[in-house]
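Q: Got a minute? One more chain.
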Amino acid sequence: MSTTNTISTDSMENPPEKMLRARNTDITISPHSTPQRDRSPNPNQFMRPNTRRTTSLNVEDHSTKPVDLERHSKLPYFMRMNGSIAPRLIVPLLLVALWSTLITCISQFVHPLVVSSLLLTVLGFVVALGISFRTSSAYERYVEGRRYWAQLQQTSRDLARHIWMHIDERHDDSADLGKSDLLAKLTALNLIVAFSLALKHKLRFEPYTVYENDDLDKLVAHLSTYAGDATDPNVDTTGDKSKRKRIGEWLGLEFAGSNPRKLLKRHRGNLGNLPFEILTYLSAYVEDCVKQKTLRLSAPEGMIMAELSSLNEVLAGTERVLNTPLPVAYSIAISQVTWVYVIALPFQLWDALHWVTIPGTVIGAYIILGIAAIGREIENPFGYDTNDLPLERFCDQINADINLITSKPPPKKEDFIFSPSNHVLSTLSYDFASSSKSTEEIRVRLKARANTEAGEEKPETGVPRVVLAAV
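A: Always. Here it is, folded:
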Protein backbone atom coordinates (compact mmCIF):
# COMPACT_ATOMS: atom_id res chain seq x y z
CA MET A 1 0.00 0.00 0.00
CA SER A 2 1.46 3.29 -1.08
CA THR A 3 2.08 6.02 1.40
CA THR A 4 0.72 9.50 0.91
CA ASN A 5 2.09 12.86 1.85
CA THR A 6 -0.33 15.02 3.77
CA ILE A 7 -0.32 18.78 3.93
CA SER A 8 -0.96 20.50 7.21
CA THR A 9 -4.21 22.44 7.26
CA ASP A 10 -3.82 24.02 10.66
CA SER A 11 -4.30 27.32 8.92
CA MET A 12 -7.95 26.43 8.44
CA GLU A 13 -8.40 27.57 12.04
CA ASN A 14 -5.45 30.00 12.15
CA PRO A 15 -4.98 33.32 10.36
CA PRO A 16 -5.09 32.85 6.59
CA GLU A 17 -1.56 34.06 5.98
CA LYS A 18 -0.19 30.84 7.48
CA MET A 19 -1.96 28.61 5.00
CA LEU A 20 0.60 27.45 2.48
CA ARG A 21 2.18 30.86 3.05
CA ALA A 22 0.10 31.88 0.07
CA ARG A 23 -1.50 35.10 -1.09
CA ASN A 24 -3.40 36.26 2.02
CA THR A 25 -6.58 34.46 0.99
CA ASP A 26 -9.08 32.47 3.03
CA ILE A 27 -9.73 29.05 1.50
CA THR A 28 -12.70 26.89 2.40
CA ILE A 29 -12.32 23.25 1.36
CA SER A 30 -15.03 20.67 0.90
CA PRO A 31 -14.42 17.18 -0.50
CA HIS A 32 -15.92 18.07 -3.90
CA SER A 33 -15.41 21.78 -4.21
CA THR A 34 -12.68 24.17 -5.15
CA PRO A 35 -11.38 26.91 -2.88
CA GLN A 36 -13.55 29.96 -2.62
CA ARG A 37 -11.51 33.10 -2.17
CA ASP A 38 -12.70 36.13 -0.29
CA ARG A 39 -11.32 38.44 -2.90
CA SER A 40 -13.05 38.61 -6.25
CA PRO A 41 -11.76 36.17 -8.88
CA ASN A 42 -12.09 38.85 -11.53
CA PRO A 43 -8.98 38.36 -13.70
CA ASN A 44 -8.70 42.05 -14.45
CA GLN A 45 -8.02 42.97 -10.83
CA PHE A 46 -4.33 42.01 -11.14
CA MET A 47 -3.74 43.48 -14.59
CA ARG A 48 -3.37 47.11 -13.59
CA PRO A 49 -0.22 48.05 -11.67
CA ASN A 50 -0.52 50.30 -8.66
CA THR A 51 -0.14 53.66 -10.32
CA ARG A 52 -1.51 57.13 -9.75
CA ARG A 53 -4.67 57.79 -11.69
CA THR A 54 -4.02 61.47 -12.00
CA THR A 55 -1.28 63.22 -13.86
CA SER A 56 1.73 63.66 -11.60
CA LEU A 57 4.90 65.65 -11.91
CA ASN A 58 6.67 63.49 -9.32
CA VAL A 59 10.17 62.76 -10.54
CA GLU A 60 9.89 59.18 -9.27
CA ASP A 61 6.95 58.53 -11.61
CA HIS A 62 9.15 59.37 -14.59
CA SER A 63 12.39 57.69 -13.60
CA THR A 64 11.92 54.62 -11.41
CA LYS A 65 9.30 52.52 -13.15
CA PRO A 66 8.24 51.61 -16.68
CA VAL A 67 5.52 53.58 -18.41
CA ASP A 68 1.98 52.52 -17.51
CA LEU A 69 0.55 51.47 -20.88
CA GLU A 70 -3.01 51.78 -19.58
CA ARG A 71 -2.63 55.44 -18.67
CA HIS A 72 -4.18 57.48 -21.45
CA SER A 73 -2.68 60.78 -22.48
CA LYS A 74 -4.36 63.25 -24.80
CA LEU A 75 -1.13 65.09 -25.46
CA PRO A 76 0.50 64.56 -28.86
CA TYR A 77 3.69 62.55 -28.74
CA PHE A 78 6.01 65.51 -29.31
CA MET A 79 4.68 67.17 -26.12
CA ARG A 80 4.91 64.18 -23.77
CA MET A 81 7.56 63.96 -21.08
CA ASN A 82 6.75 60.61 -19.43
CA GLY A 83 8.75 58.11 -21.45
CA SER A 84 10.69 60.81 -23.29
CA ILE A 85 14.46 60.87 -23.42
CA ALA A 86 14.43 64.70 -23.15
CA PRO A 87 15.11 64.91 -19.37
CA ARG A 88 18.31 62.88 -19.79
CA LEU A 89 19.52 65.39 -22.39
CA ILE A 90 19.04 68.57 -20.36
CA VAL A 91 22.58 68.63 -18.97
CA PRO A 92 24.32 67.53 -22.22
CA LEU A 93 22.36 70.11 -24.23
CA LEU A 94 23.25 72.87 -21.77
CA LEU A 95 26.93 71.98 -22.20
CA VAL A 96 26.51 71.95 -25.98
CA ALA A 97 24.76 75.35 -25.85
CA LEU A 98 27.59 76.85 -23.79
CA TRP A 99 30.20 75.35 -26.10
CA SER A 100 28.48 76.59 -29.28
CA THR A 101 28.00 80.04 -27.71
CA LEU A 102 31.71 80.23 -26.89
CA ILE A 103 32.80 79.23 -30.40
CA THR A 104 30.27 81.59 -31.99
CA CYS A 105 31.40 84.56 -29.88
CA ILE A 106 35.06 83.91 -30.62
CA SER A 107 34.33 83.56 -34.32
CA GLN A 108 32.19 86.71 -34.33
CA PHE A 109 34.38 89.06 -32.30
CA VAL A 110 37.94 87.65 -32.29
CA HIS A 111 38.82 85.32 -35.13
CA PRO A 112 36.69 83.07 -37.35
CA LEU A 113 36.99 79.44 -36.29
CA VAL A 114 35.89 77.64 -39.41
CA VAL A 115 36.59 74.15 -40.75
CA SER A 116 35.61 72.61 -44.04
CA SER A 117 32.13 71.10 -44.32
CA LEU A 118 33.83 67.96 -45.66
CA LEU A 119 34.53 67.02 -42.04
CA LEU A 120 30.80 67.19 -41.34
CA THR A 121 30.10 64.77 -44.18
CA VAL A 122 32.77 62.23 -43.19
CA LEU A 123 31.99 62.29 -39.46
CA GLY A 124 28.26 62.28 -40.15
CA PHE A 125 28.55 58.99 -42.04
CA VAL A 126 30.58 57.38 -39.25
CA VAL A 127 28.22 58.66 -36.54
CA ALA A 128 25.14 57.46 -38.42
CA LEU A 129 26.69 54.02 -38.87
CA GLY A 130 27.66 53.74 -35.20
CA ILE A 131 24.33 54.98 -33.83
CA SER A 132 22.41 52.72 -36.22
CA PHE A 133 24.42 49.72 -35.03
CA ARG A 134 23.92 50.65 -31.37
CA THR A 135 20.17 51.25 -31.70
CA SER A 136 19.46 48.13 -33.75
CA SER A 137 21.44 45.95 -31.31
CA ALA A 138 19.63 47.44 -28.31
CA TYR A 139 16.19 47.05 -29.89
CA GLU A 140 16.96 43.44 -30.79
CA ARG A 141 17.72 42.75 -27.13
CA TYR A 142 14.50 44.54 -26.13
CA VAL A 143 12.39 42.44 -28.50
CA GLU A 144 14.14 39.25 -27.42
CA GLY A 145 13.42 40.03 -23.76
CA ARG A 146 9.75 40.63 -24.56
CA ARG A 147 9.64 37.36 -26.50
CA TYR A 148 10.93 35.41 -23.50
CA TRP A 149 8.35 36.97 -21.19
CA ALA A 150 5.60 36.14 -23.68
CA GLN A 151 6.88 32.56 -23.66
CA LEU A 152 6.79 32.62 -19.86
CA GLN A 153 3.16 33.75 -19.87
CA GLN A 154 2.12 31.07 -22.35
CA THR A 155 4.03 28.28 -20.60
CA SER A 156 2.68 29.31 -17.18
CA ARG A 157 -0.89 29.12 -18.46
CA ASP A 158 -0.33 25.73 -20.07
CA LEU A 159 1.42 24.31 -17.01
CA ALA A 160 -1.28 25.58 -14.64
CA ARG A 161 -4.02 24.20 -16.88
CA HIS A 162 -2.39 20.77 -17.13
CA ILE A 163 -1.80 20.55 -13.37
CA TRP A 164 -5.35 21.65 -12.59
CA MET A 165 -6.98 19.35 -15.16
CA HIS A 166 -4.84 16.22 -15.33
CA ILE A 167 -3.73 15.64 -11.74
CA ASP A 168 -6.50 13.85 -9.86
CA GLU A 169 -7.99 14.79 -6.51
CA ARG A 170 -8.83 11.61 -4.60
CA HIS A 171 -12.07 12.80 -3.00
CA ASP A 172 -13.73 9.46 -3.72
CA ASP A 173 -11.05 7.55 -1.80
CA SER A 174 -10.93 9.81 1.21
CA ALA A 175 -11.96 13.33 2.13
CA ASP A 176 -8.55 13.94 3.68
CA LEU A 177 -6.74 12.63 0.59
CA GLY A 178 -8.87 14.78 -1.71
CA LYS A 179 -8.23 17.87 0.38
CA SER A 180 -4.51 17.09 0.52
CA ASP A 181 -4.36 16.69 -3.27
CA LEU A 182 -6.21 19.97 -3.77
CA LEU A 183 -3.88 21.86 -1.46
CA ALA A 184 -0.88 20.31 -3.20
CA LYS A 185 -2.17 21.51 -6.57
CA LEU A 186 -2.68 25.00 -5.22
CA THR A 187 0.85 24.94 -3.84
CA ALA A 188 2.21 24.00 -7.27
CA LEU A 189 0.20 26.77 -8.94
CA ASN A 190 1.51 29.25 -6.37
CA LEU A 191 5.04 28.19 -7.30
CA ILE A 192 4.34 29.07 -10.95
CA VAL A 193 3.48 32.61 -9.85
CA ALA A 194 6.52 32.60 -7.57
CA PHE A 195 8.74 31.65 -10.51
CA SER A 196 7.68 34.74 -12.47
CA LEU A 197 8.22 37.01 -9.45
CA ALA A 198 11.59 35.44 -8.66
CA LEU A 199 12.68 35.83 -12.29
CA LYS A 200 11.68 39.50 -12.24
CA HIS A 201 13.79 40.18 -9.15
CA LYS A 202 16.72 38.15 -10.45
CA LEU A 203 16.81 40.17 -13.68
CA ARG A 204 16.89 43.34 -11.58
CA PHE A 205 19.76 42.07 -9.37
CA GLU A 206 17.49 41.75 -6.34
CA PRO A 207 18.63 38.52 -4.69
CA TYR A 208 16.37 38.30 -1.65
CA THR A 209 12.76 37.19 -1.14
CA VAL A 210 11.20 40.03 0.88
CA TYR A 211 9.95 42.99 -1.15
CA GLU A 212 7.07 45.25 -0.24
CA ASN A 213 5.58 45.42 -3.73
CA ASP A 214 4.76 41.72 -4.19
CA ASP A 215 4.05 38.45 -2.35
CA LEU A 216 7.20 36.53 -3.24
CA ASP A 217 8.10 35.83 0.38
CA LYS A 218 4.65 34.39 1.13
CA LEU A 219 4.89 32.11 -1.89
CA VAL A 220 8.35 30.66 -1.16
CA ALA A 221 8.71 30.95 2.63
CA HIS A 222 7.93 27.24 3.03
CA LEU A 223 10.78 26.29 0.66
CA SER A 224 14.40 25.74 1.64
CA THR A 225 16.25 28.13 -0.68
CA TYR A 226 19.54 30.00 -0.59
CA ALA A 227 17.77 33.30 -1.24
CA GLY A 228 15.43 32.69 1.69
CA ASP A 229 18.34 31.85 3.98
CA ALA A 230 20.24 34.95 2.86
CA THR A 231 17.29 37.29 3.37
CA ASP A 232 17.93 39.60 6.29
CA PRO A 233 14.93 41.59 7.60
CA ASN A 234 17.33 44.37 8.54
CA VAL A 235 18.52 44.82 4.95
CA ASP A 236 16.74 47.56 3.04
CA THR A 237 15.24 46.02 -0.11
CA THR A 238 12.86 48.86 -0.93
CA GLY A 239 15.38 50.73 -3.04
CA ASP A 240 14.46 54.08 -1.47
CA LYS A 241 16.66 56.87 -2.78
CA SER A 242 17.19 60.44 -1.77
CA LYS A 243 15.49 63.16 -3.76
CA ARG A 244 18.86 64.39 -5.01
CA LYS A 245 19.75 60.94 -6.34
CA ARG A 246 16.35 60.52 -8.02
CA ILE A 247 16.70 63.89 -9.74
CA GLY A 248 20.22 62.99 -10.85
CA GLU A 249 19.03 59.70 -12.37
CA TRP A 250 16.12 61.52 -14.03
CA LEU A 251 18.61 63.87 -15.65
CA GLY A 252 20.74 60.93 -16.77
CA LEU A 253 23.80 61.86 -14.72
CA GLU A 254 26.06 58.82 -14.62
CA PHE A 255 27.70 59.72 -11.31
CA ALA A 256 24.27 59.99 -9.63
CA GLY A 257 23.16 56.49 -10.61
CA SER A 258 23.41 53.57 -8.22
CA ASN A 259 25.20 50.34 -9.02
CA PRO A 260 22.36 47.90 -9.86
CA ARG A 261 24.46 44.99 -8.56
CA LYS A 262 25.21 46.54 -5.17
CA LEU A 263 23.05 44.04 -3.25
CA LEU A 264 24.87 41.16 -4.93
CA LYS A 265 28.27 42.61 -4.07
CA ARG A 266 27.41 43.33 -0.44
CA HIS A 267 26.42 39.74 0.30
CA ARG A 268 29.34 37.41 0.89
CA GLY A 269 27.51 34.08 0.94
CA ASN A 270 25.79 31.97 -1.71
CA LEU A 271 22.62 33.61 -2.97
CA GLY A 272 21.67 30.64 -5.12
CA ASN A 273 19.32 30.84 -8.10
CA LEU A 274 15.78 31.19 -6.78
CA PRO A 275 13.86 30.66 -10.07
CA PHE A 276 15.82 27.48 -10.77
CA GLU A 277 15.25 26.22 -7.22
CA ILE A 278 11.50 26.76 -7.65
CA LEU A 279 11.60 24.62 -10.80
CA THR A 280 13.27 21.89 -8.76
CA TYR A 281 10.37 21.88 -6.29
CA LEU A 282 7.85 21.78 -9.14
CA SER A 283 9.66 18.75 -10.58
CA ALA A 284 9.55 17.07 -7.18
CA TYR A 285 5.79 17.67 -7.03
CA VAL A 286 5.26 16.09 -10.44
CA GLU A 287 7.39 13.08 -9.49
CA ASP A 288 5.34 12.59 -6.32
CA CYS A 289 2.11 12.76 -8.33
CA VAL A 290 3.40 9.99 -10.59
CA LYS A 291 4.31 7.86 -7.56
CA GLN A 292 0.94 8.45 -5.91
CA LYS A 293 -0.79 7.70 -9.26
CA THR A 294 -2.67 10.97 -9.26
CA LEU A 295 -1.00 11.69 -12.59
CA ARG A 296 -1.90 8.49 -14.37
CA LEU A 297 -1.47 9.25 -18.06
CA SER A 298 1.96 9.52 -19.66
CA ALA A 299 0.94 12.18 -22.19
CA PRO A 300 0.07 14.89 -19.60
CA GLU A 301 3.19 13.95 -17.66
CA GLY A 302 5.31 14.50 -20.77
CA MET A 303 3.63 17.85 -21.44
CA ILE A 304 4.17 19.04 -17.86
CA MET A 305 7.86 18.10 -17.92
CA ALA A 306 8.24 19.82 -21.32
CA GLU A 307 6.68 22.97 -19.87
CA LEU A 308 9.08 22.90 -16.93
CA SER A 309 11.91 22.68 -19.45
CA SER A 310 10.38 25.66 -21.29
CA LEU A 311 10.44 27.69 -18.05
CA ASN A 312 14.10 26.80 -17.64
CA GLU A 313 14.68 27.94 -21.23
CA VAL A 314 13.08 31.29 -20.37
CA LEU A 315 15.38 31.59 -17.36
CA ALA A 316 18.50 30.84 -19.42
CA GLY A 317 17.41 33.14 -22.27
CA THR A 318 16.70 36.15 -20.09
CA GLU A 319 19.99 35.64 -18.26
CA ARG A 320 21.76 35.65 -21.62
CA VAL A 321 20.07 38.91 -22.65
CA LEU A 322 20.95 40.48 -19.30
CA ASN A 323 24.57 39.37 -19.07
CA THR A 324 25.75 39.86 -22.66
CA PRO A 325 25.42 43.58 -23.43
CA LEU A 326 27.08 45.34 -26.32
CA PRO A 327 30.87 45.04 -25.89
CA VAL A 328 32.31 47.94 -23.94
CA ALA A 329 34.73 48.81 -26.76
CA TYR A 330 31.81 49.48 -29.12
CA SER A 331 29.98 51.58 -26.53
CA ILE A 332 33.06 53.71 -25.80
CA ALA A 333 33.96 54.21 -29.45
CA ILE A 334 30.40 55.14 -30.49
CA SER A 335 30.09 57.58 -27.59
CA GLN A 336 33.44 59.22 -28.37
CA VAL A 337 32.74 59.56 -32.11
CA THR A 338 29.30 61.01 -31.37
CA TRP A 339 30.67 63.68 -29.04
CA VAL A 340 33.48 64.55 -31.47
CA TYR A 341 30.83 65.17 -34.12
CA VAL A 342 28.73 67.34 -31.78
CA ILE A 343 31.76 69.34 -30.63
CA ALA A 344 32.78 69.97 -34.25
CA LEU A 345 29.34 71.22 -35.31
CA PRO A 346 29.81 74.93 -34.36
CA PHE A 347 33.07 75.15 -36.35
CA GLN A 348 31.27 73.95 -39.48
CA LEU A 349 28.02 75.88 -39.08
CA TRP A 350 29.24 79.37 -38.12
CA ASP A 351 30.38 80.44 -41.60
CA ALA A 352 26.85 79.94 -42.97
CA LEU A 353 24.61 80.53 -39.94
CA HIS A 354 26.53 82.94 -37.67
CA TRP A 355 24.38 83.49 -34.52
CA VAL A 356 21.96 80.79 -35.63
CA THR A 357 24.86 78.40 -35.04
CA ILE A 358 23.89 78.17 -31.36
CA PRO A 359 20.30 76.85 -31.77
CA GLY A 360 21.37 74.86 -34.82
CA THR A 361 24.06 73.03 -32.82
CA VAL A 362 21.64 72.35 -29.95
CA ILE A 363 19.03 70.90 -32.31
CA GLY A 364 21.59 68.72 -34.05
CA ALA A 365 22.94 67.52 -30.71
CA TYR A 366 19.45 66.69 -29.49
CA ILE A 367 18.80 64.48 -32.50
CA ILE A 368 22.12 62.63 -32.35
CA LEU A 369 22.51 62.32 -28.59
CA GLY A 370 18.82 61.47 -28.16
CA ILE A 371 18.92 58.47 -30.48
CA ALA A 372 22.12 57.27 -28.83
CA ALA A 373 20.55 57.65 -25.36
CA ILE A 374 17.50 55.61 -26.39
CA GLY A 375 19.80 52.78 -27.42
CA ARG A 376 21.53 52.86 -24.04
CA GLU A 377 18.23 52.84 -22.15
CA ILE A 378 16.57 49.89 -23.88
CA GLU A 379 19.76 47.81 -23.98
CA ASN A 380 18.69 46.27 -20.66
CA PRO A 381 14.89 45.83 -20.98
CA PHE A 382 14.38 44.40 -17.48
CA GLY A 383 15.15 47.40 -15.28
CA TYR A 384 13.20 50.33 -13.86
CA ASP A 385 13.68 52.83 -16.70
CA THR A 386 10.52 54.32 -18.15
CA ASN A 387 10.95 52.48 -21.46
CA ASP A 388 11.77 49.08 -19.95
CA LEU A 389 9.40 46.13 -20.08
CA PRO A 390 6.53 46.31 -17.53
CA LEU A 391 7.51 43.13 -15.68
CA GLU A 392 5.08 43.84 -12.83
CA ARG A 393 2.20 43.82 -15.29
CA PHE A 394 3.35 40.52 -16.81
CA CYS A 395 3.56 38.89 -13.36
CA ASP A 396 0.12 40.24 -12.42
CA GLN A 397 -1.32 38.79 -15.61
CA ILE A 398 0.09 35.34 -14.83
CA ASN A 399 -1.35 35.58 -11.31
CA ALA A 400 -4.75 36.61 -12.70
CA ASP A 401 -4.82 33.75 -15.20
CA ILE A 402 -4.02 31.17 -12.52
CA ASN A 403 -6.66 32.63 -10.20
CA LEU A 404 -9.10 32.34 -13.09
CA ILE A 405 -8.28 28.64 -13.56
CA THR A 406 -8.65 27.79 -9.87
CA SER A 407 -11.90 29.74 -9.44
CA LYS A 408 -13.88 26.69 -10.66
CA PRO A 409 -13.40 22.93 -10.35
CA PRO A 410 -11.97 21.08 -13.36
CA PRO A 411 -14.90 20.81 -15.83
CA LYS A 412 -16.39 17.45 -16.77
CA LYS A 413 -17.84 16.81 -20.19
CA GLU A 414 -21.36 16.10 -18.90
CA ASP A 415 -21.37 19.59 -17.41
CA PHE A 416 -21.11 21.35 -20.78
CA ILE A 417 -21.51 18.89 -23.69
CA PHE A 418 -24.92 17.56 -22.56
CA SER A 419 -26.09 20.87 -21.15
CA PRO A 420 -29.55 22.09 -22.34
CA SER A 421 -27.84 25.37 -23.25
CA ASN A 422 -25.53 23.62 -25.73
CA HIS A 423 -27.12 24.34 -29.12
CA VAL A 424 -24.71 22.13 -30.98
CA LEU A 425 -26.73 22.22 -34.23
CA SER A 426 -27.84 25.81 -34.00
CA THR A 427 -26.16 26.61 -37.31
CA LEU A 428 -28.57 24.21 -39.00
CA SER A 429 -31.76 25.23 -37.28
CA TYR A 430 -32.45 27.27 -34.21
CA ASP A 431 -35.23 24.89 -33.13
CA PHE A 432 -33.47 21.66 -34.06
CA ALA A 433 -33.06 19.60 -30.86
CA SER A 434 -30.22 17.11 -31.30
CA SER A 435 -31.42 14.93 -28.43
CA SER A 436 -34.68 14.16 -30.23
CA LYS A 437 -33.05 13.16 -33.51
CA SER A 438 -31.36 9.97 -34.54
CA THR A 439 -27.73 9.74 -35.63
CA GLU A 440 -28.76 9.39 -39.28
CA GLU A 441 -30.97 12.48 -39.11
CA ILE A 442 -28.12 14.47 -37.62
CA ARG A 443 -25.78 13.33 -40.39
CA VAL A 444 -28.35 14.26 -43.05
CA ARG A 445 -28.54 17.75 -41.62
CA LEU A 446 -24.75 18.04 -41.54
CA LYS A 447 -24.58 17.01 -45.18
CA ALA A 448 -27.27 19.52 -46.05
CA ARG A 449 -25.29 22.26 -44.34
CA ALA A 450 -22.19 21.39 -46.34
CA ASN A 451 -24.15 21.42 -49.63
CA THR A 452 -25.89 24.72 -48.97
CA GLU A 453 -25.02 27.22 -51.69
CA ALA A 454 -24.76 31.01 -51.58
CA GLY A 455 -28.14 32.71 -51.20
CA GLU A 456 -29.92 29.50 -50.21
CA GLU A 457 -31.97 29.54 -47.03
CA LYS A 458 -31.06 27.52 -43.98
CA PRO A 459 -33.12 24.33 -43.40
CA GLU A 460 -36.37 24.94 -41.50
CA THR A 461 -35.66 28.66 -41.17
CA GLY A 462 -36.06 31.74 -43.26
CA VAL A 463 -32.69 33.11 -42.31
CA PRO A 464 -30.40 33.50 -45.36
CA ARG A 465 -26.96 31.96 -45.03
CA VAL A 466 -24.15 34.47 -45.04
CA VAL A 467 -21.44 33.42 -47.45
CA LEU A 468 -18.08 35.16 -47.53
CA ALA A 469 -16.98 35.39 -51.16
CA ALA A 470 -13.31 35.38 -51.94
CA VAL A 471 -12.00 38.78 -52.86
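A: The CA atoms of residues 353 and 360 lie 8 Å apart.
Q: Perfect, thanks.
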